[in-house]
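Example record used in the benchmark description.
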Amino acid sequence: MRPAQFTTPPLATPPDTASEAVRHWTMMLGVHGQQVTGTTDASVSVDSLLNTLSGGPDTRVIALAVVDDGDPTTAVALSSAETSDLGYPLIPSTGDAPAPDVYAWAVLSLPLRENVTVCGAEITLDVPFLPLPGEPLGDLGRAAVDAIVTEIENVCRSLGRTVIQIRQLGAPDTASADPSDPVLRARGFTPVLVEEQASVPVPADPSPCRIPAGFSTAIFPGMCPANATDRIIDGLCRLLEVFSADLPVGDLFSQPQSWDRERLERADRDARSTGRSIVWAMVLDGSGVPVAVSGFSRDPSDRPGVARQMLTVVDRRHRGTGLSRAVKTALAVAARDTGVNRIHTSVTATGATPVSVLNGEWGAELLARDVHWQKEGVGTGGTTRC
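Model output (structure tokens):
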């Protein structure tokens, strides 16, 4: 086994230019997602993976793989590969180079504004090393997980990241442990947060909600709505900050985000460049300031009728007044009017919230659980590979 790194494609790289290596990785992500959730809605597209690998101004993304350097094709490709700034041989993300023989992949996300001591990671095993449901990892599967975790830790040490968070997509049944759990525990990781992924049907005729006198609802398209007033943009930024501060994350290390118009406009440009559409529903007070917001997004490659919930947040001063239900209902109407009939959402599995209660009333179907593993004190002083 030998580690390697994928090149970083520019944002909005055309999917037809993706390398065979990226296409194979995409297929494995789709296989794993469908195996866990039982739905093709969990499929991953080539362009979405390319966009993920692109990173952005607020997050650096590093894509690693553990490959079989005993495979002749892989060995030849690595021998002539360029070397990354981290010392790894580079696997092209685009072009027509043959795909290496891979044991495991990992996407590392390194925030550049907040949480600058954190590295988030997601690991995928190639199909031959995935056990059947309910069975443990085989020797090669354990070795592959251990090897990719070693490289994640090496990168974190080299870049001064001291907290590693690994997200696992797992079965909705809490009795079904992920086969890689023993490896992560042995490496010093602890599960600190569980989130539930669900598919929420959009009601055909959402019941209207009563909201306090003087408040109104409004729909705005775009991450940074072009037709919004300064009050709305400033209020949206403030609620995004509130959401990041109040999100229940248990013992998962997470710092609040700082949002302003510049950051919102940059996120809007990135979304538009990839064809991603965003819709906000808001509850406005009498002065036109948002006091509650809920939003969904859609990628061009998403299944027909599917959208992804981004967030729902209510101003702290107005919680318990029914605004969560009002803004979610307004978003459901906007979803229905744009042809969306189900919204995929993720909420923490610790206790009922107004949002999870409403999702349940609408017939939410639990599809999977995300388990977040964390290891602190990884340390610094790692060396660059040669």
